[in-house]
Amino acid sequence: MERYFQAAKSWPFEEARKIVNRLKNTNKTSVILETGYGPSGLPHIGTFGEVLRTTFVMQAFRKLSNIPAKIIVFSDDMDGLRKVPSNVPNQELLSKYLDKPLTSVPDPFGKYESFARHNNAMLKRFLDSFGFEYEFKSSTETYKSGAFNDCLFKVLERFDEIMNIMLPSLREERRKTYSPFLPISRKSGKVLQVQIEEVRLDDKSIVYRDPDSGTLEEISILDGNCKLQWKADWGARWAAFGIDYEMNGKDLIDSFKLSSRICKTIGGIPPENMTYELFLDQEGKKISKSKGNGLSMDEWLKYAPSESLAYYMFQNPARAKRLYFDVIPNAMDDYIDSLAKFENESGEKKIDNPVYHIHSGKPPKYEGGLKFSTLLNLVQACNTSSEEVLMSFIEKYLKNASKETLDFMRKTAKFAIIYYNDFIAGSRIPVAPDGAQRDALVSLKNELEKLTEDATADEIQTVAFEIGKKFFPNLKDWFLTLYKVLFGAESGPRMGTFISLYGLNNTINLIEKIIKR
User: Fold this and answer.
1) Which domain holds residue 443?
2) pTM of the full predicted structure?
3) Most exposed: 227, 232, 371, 494, by fewest CB within 10 Å?
């Protein structure tokens, strides 16, 4: 397998090669990849996706190089609370803490010592449940420990240069108060966005005018007394930690460029970078932590296993994706298709198969081939919410399947029942067939009656094809007819597979009911 890594075409290997090439010009003996999180709102799938995709790149890099690599997940939890998220309780409580560091804002859920700690814990819990390998860093702890002090002093030394980088990018009104340093007020505890009146290099401090009292205040830039504006913070972080790789959303392209210039100004080397497209909600709008639109991680995992979510994140990161409930069945079907193909693919294709990356090079064997969408139709045809009823059909269809495959199908059957009950039940109304459609259905029933119970899915599919060619000029119209009259849907499963799964006699009885109706 190793001989294929250098030629792998999947995007994680393309990104990993950027890091390999970067190392040629350095003496580094380890590699650090970073992903950031703003805990001003609850973690969402976009946050998870960035960590997952960065993990894919790290895994690919480890196949191309023996140099140690790790991921830092950095939480900007020293940032001020700019607005109250709409999807959390105790809104009035939070409104009293606007502009204070997130680690100083009470947890509206009443579980942790601060809002930031709550959101950080949620993120870590979810990442841990997927077995991610990462090192978590808190902005508050990093600043207060002095780990940023050297970089903070370099920013102070190059204060005017950084101002010249940033000011042209700002609106005129914002230029009046902009500074790379945000002092933490000793009086109010707020993160202040104020103009800096004086830079005192010898004292490693800045002087600003207090917005409440109007008096001049001097404050040290070190040890958590100030934090950096986020673009300066981003660039300083790369320099302080020696970050080699970080990806970001399309909305941060310009920010990445500015932060890169700041990083270079203080003596750092900006990381290699990939820009990904944004995740969109049902209406095509960017998902937001504060609005809580789009899908949450827990919502996805209510209806499908984690592998399907990982598959959805892997596919086409440069293309915008809708994150809503209706994308789940297709994501599951595509994951199952890739899993089924993997075992029989050549080594070169195996490495570029998404399941290779999702399962860290060791995807489970899957002989089933049954899709999630097929199980949704089986739930409807059986009119059942019983997992055991579905498994009786599945086990009969997959006669010689391994325990691993049957366990996977049992888990998938559970999800199919939940998804059907929440999103499909009652929404599908089978269409009554007209004269020509009815004649075709009668012919299909008659031909199915001639088959034996051990007829394969391919044999049944051939029968369905022959009936379609006899009654319909366009085969698509025939299968659309079947989907509409059997399931009340515009699309559906491969009919040979469904009929084999549901059973010949059950299908014949179903057609008879439709004809009589």
Assistant:
1) 435-516
2) 0.89
3) 494
